[in-house]
Design brief:
This protein has helices at 2-14, 16-25, 28-41, 46-70, 74-81, 85-122, 130-147, 150-174, 179-185, 196-207, 210-223, 230-257, 259-262, 269-315, 324-336, 339-342, 347-372, 376-379, 386-410. The protein is mostly helical. The protein is globular and about 65 Å long. Pfam families: Nramp. This is Mn2+ and Fe2+ transporters of the NRAMP family. It is found in: Membrane.
């Protein structure tokens, strides 16, 4: 038994960067988007999720490969390798930080709302205000970030990701979804209904996120990998993308086999708990809450690290989250976690806006990597193959399509 556990631990350690990005990517926004899609359209838009995960894998491998060869992180490469590259790198840095701060407000607000619901279920309708829940979470997170190292965060995120995945799988079987409806909906198509294109953009925005690819180079660098680890990097990216597809697909299938069959629609994450309570009972509702809270907390970790890591990436300085600058940036980010307490917008509305905002950044992230990975002077014998080029070109085209959908939906 001990040998088996040791093997599992070694396997998880080998895919550390992937688990970190799963933790970032599968958050409350993903859960809400997939559940809403499944409730409204069954599995008809599952193809959009599959494409998004394939393209996520392609760009993760590309960004990781360039970092392995050059030893430099994404923004540092963009800044140094292009004429006026510093402008593009600065734009990406600022846009990603703004997008992530908006997302942080939405994520923390949704997590607080879900914990309110959990407290209500456990303690006979007891009520704790959102402010106090967020304050406790912020203090706990800051304490961990103050004293912790990257390896500590990786372990914590591993626990969150495993717990989140198991929770969704357990709920899937508890609510006994209609498998025939799920299977029927797997035929690809775009429903002729208002907002369907917007959901395609949202699926892409929550999965094929610009921040994931920029952060990818940083977490690969944190791992200390070199070009000899290229196979490890590809395996890690595959595990990450496959897990994203599996977990997101399970959430979509749960909603497709239950809410879609009953003709129920979904507007936010907390409403999802209320809809599942009569189907699977309090136990299913509580497990679902724990899974989504795990998803939310695993997203918050990378979000608050984005500003110090991206600034270190841009300036080419060592990443030290215990420096005075990093601690001030992390504290500043956590202050934004209280945004949902003071703003009129509901947390899900903030999440949707931040996802649309991220989708618009994707072309600015996809095009530079296409140029960088094809530079013979930079990449040498590791220059992109024909297959890699076809894949990255497909991502670039996909990024323009989803940007168009996102802009159309916003305005």
């Amino acid at each position: 038994m001990n040998k088996r556990l040791k093997k599992i631990a070694i396997a998880l350690a080998a895919v550390g960067p992937g688990l970190f990005l799963i933790g970032y990517n599968i958050g409350t926004g993903s859960v809400t988007t997939m559940a809403k899609t499944g409730a409204e359209h069954g599995m008809e838009l599952f193809w959009a999720l599959v494409l998004s995960c394939i393209f996520t894998f392609i760009l993760m491998v590309a960004y990781g490969k360039v970092t392995l060869v050059t030893g430099k992180t994404a923004l540092n490469n963009i800044k140094g390798e292009f004429k006026y590259g510093w402008i593009l790198a600065l734009y990406i840095l600022i846009a990603l930080i703004i997008g992530e701060l908006l997302a942080l407000m939405g994520v923390m607000g949704i997590v607080a709302d879900l914990l309110q619901e959990a407290i209500r279920l456990l303690f006979n309708d007891a009520f704790v205000s959102r402010f106090w829940i967020i304050l406790i979470l912020v203090v706990g997170l800051y304490f961990l970030l103050w004293f912790g190292q990257y390896k500590t965060f990786e372990k914590v995120l591993t626990v969150f990701v495993i717990f989140m995945g198991l929770s969704f799988i357990v709920v899937f079987f508890m609510v006994s979804p209609n498998f025939s409806v799920i299977a029927k909906g797997l035929v690809p198509g775009i429903p002729d209904t208002p907002g369907a294109m917007g959901l395609v953009a949202a699926i892409a925005g929550t999965t094929c996120s610009a921040a994931v690819f920029i952060m990818r180079s940083t977490v690969v660098a944190e791992k200390g990998w070199g070009i000899k680890n290229l196979k490890d990097e590809k395996k890690d990216a595959f595990v990450s993308a496959a897990m994203m597809l599996f977990l997101s697909g399970v959430i979509m299938a749960v909603a497709a086999g239950t809410l879609h069959v009953m003709g129920l629609k979904l507007e936010n994450t907390v409403e999802m708990i209320a809809l599942f309570e009569p189907i699977g009972g309090d136990a299913a509702a509580f497990i679902l809450i724990l899974g989504i809270v795990g998803a939310g907390l695993s997203t918050i970790f990378p979000i608050v690290l984005i500003a110090p890591w991206l600034i270190a990436d841009y300036t080419g300085k060592p990443r030290n989250i215990h420096s005075t600058q990093s601690r001030i940036l992390i504290l500043g980010a956590l202050v934004f976690a209280f945004g949902s307490v003071f703003l009129k917008q509901r947390p899900p509305a903030l999440m949707i806006f931040s996802q649309a905002f991220q989708a618009v950044i994707l072309p600015a992230v996809a095009i530079p990597i296409l140029l960088l990975i094809n530079r013979k002077k930079l990449m040498g014998t590791n220059k992109a193959s024909l297959r890699e080029n076809i894949g990255i070109w497909a991502v670039v085209l996909f990024s323009f399509v989803t940007t168009y959908f996102a802009i159309t939906e916003l305005f």
